[in-house]
Design brief:
Carbamate kinase, 8 helices, nine-stranded mixed β-sheet, 235 residues, two-stranded antiparallel ribbon
Amino acid sequence: MKYKRILLKLSGEALMGDRQYGIDPKRLAEYADEIKQIHELGVQIAIVIGGGNIFRGIAGASNGMDRVQGDYMGMLATVINGMALQGALEEKGMLTRLQTALKIEAIAEPYIKRRAVRHLEKNRIVIFGAGTGNPYFTTDTAAVLRGVEVNADVILKGTRVDGIYSEDPEKNKDAVKFDYISFEDVLKKGLNVMDTTAFTLSQENKLPIIVFDMNKEGNLLKICKGDNIGTVVNI
């Protein structure tokens, strides 16, 4: 396997499947199957999942809600998604741990770096919930931060698009897909890969990002084996 330890970033919206909001059990089960394929081959897996299918703090703020309050609500949404994913993974026989940046001892361990690394070494899947635990930071930033902290080999950003394009491929059919692009070129071209804080943190720590289509069966396994799937962002 090309990658021994990965940080998989999933969007909350991805869990909706064909629904308008909430969690689609069918999509959860599909993701669990994809994750199981690489888990059985010994890849150590950490996961950060967004909360946009339930609540977005920034959207709440745009409707007059206090931004800090909204962001904390968004963090709790990521915990709900983390619990749902944990349940789906354990149903398929995988050992998991949910760690959260906010203390919710009844349902999850508090985030402790050394404990998280130990779980990974024991081949338990670790799901990180509640973002960074701070308002004004996205789950993209949380994903890169946790990836750096647990010494992941790569950030795998699973989306509904098969990579990074020169323009939005859903709006312009002539948009060009990049197989490889440097951090510097992403910034020069103003491409929307992750928010700036997350992207800069990844660049500073020389942690590559792969953006790929998580909904295509087998993609996760192919990436971990080293196949050219999606777009690689590196130095």
